[in-house]
Amino acid sequence: MEISLPMQCLFEFIGTAVMILLGCGVVACVSLKKSKGEGGGWMVVTLAWGLAVMCGVLIAGPFTGAHLNPAVSIGLASAGKFPWSSVIPYISAQILGAMTGGAMVYWFYKDHFDATEDAETKLGVFSTIPAIRNHYRNLISEIIGTFVLVLVILFIGDKSNSAEVGLGSIGAIPVALLVVVIGLSLGGTTGYAINPARDLGPRIAHQILPIRGKGSSQWSYSWVPILGPIIGSALAALVYWLVITQL
Question: Which of 46, 82, 170, 174 is the most interior residue, by most CB within 10 Å?
Answer without folding.
Answer: 170
